[in-house]
Design brief:
86 residues, 56% helix, mainly alpha, elongated
């Protein structure tokens, strides 16, 4: 698809989401359509960046590496300071 080509996609949003998106578009001084296109582009960028990061971070890791690491961990109960606090 070239930059000039555009595709129409019928989008159905819950009313509250549409109203919030419309308000934010107005605050940004753009149309609702432009705001939604920008939001989708940002989400795609975030997902692709995260995917690339995680693939690079995994490197040459193999499926059993984590299991071997966990097998070496002490078999003990968590201490009170490890508790999740509300």
């Amino acid at each position: 698809m070239t930059q000039a080509q555009r595709y129409k996609y019928p989008l159905q949003l819950p009313q509250s989401l549409k109203e919030t998106a419309a308000r934010l578009a107005m605050e940004d001084g753009v149309s609702l359509n432009q705001w939604i296109v920008s939001a989708v582009a940002q989400k795609i960028g975030a997902v692709e960046t995260a995917s690339d990061f995680l693939k690079a971070r995994a490197g040459k890791a193999k499926r059993g590496n984590l299991t071997r690491l966990l097998d070496r961990a002490p078999d003990s109960m968590p201490t009170p300071e490890d508790a999740i606090k509300d």
